[in-house]
Amino acid sequence: MTTTRPVQKPITGKEDLGDLxxxxxxxxxxxxxxxxxxxxxxxxxxxxxxKAAMDNxxxxxxxxxxxxxxxxxxxxxGPARVRVEFFDYTLHVFDTVFFAVGRERGQxxxxxxxxxxxxxxxxxxRFTGGRWRQVHHHGxxxxxxxxxAYQAAVKKSGGPAP
Length: 162
Fold this sequence. Notes:
Elements: H1 23-35, H2 39-45, E1 53-56, E2 60-63, H3 65-77, E3 81-93, E4 97-110, E5 113-128, E6 131-140, H4 144-156
Parallel strand pairs: 1-6
Antiparallel strand pairs: 1-2, 3-4, 4-5, 5-6
Helix pairs in contact: 1-2
């Protein structure tokens, strides 16, 4: 199933995960793991091989599950709380690969700091072991002031270095 018109209904992680052979369920699983700070669920969502890669505003480029995991572990264990939802996205599904291109919105709360987040996001999944597993994530913050504030707030709260 490929969507040509952007989907505005957000994926929050609160959706029924049910059938992880559905791309939407794999995306919902990621957001449930992220927003719930659930490392075990995050590991289920990602391809845990050295083929996985992530490029985001907090961790830079990370290659392989051990490096990717370390970014989530630091973020999940720190006092900063980040919650996001995925919206304004399109799905592009092929035989054994799908990618989702859209936006994340949400908040970062770190002490007295509260930031409204706006992140451009692409996630790529491959079908393996009877389900979709994430193999790549790229996130970008367009606004330089927001990017700097986001990185500073997470770093100040003990999260991953930008």
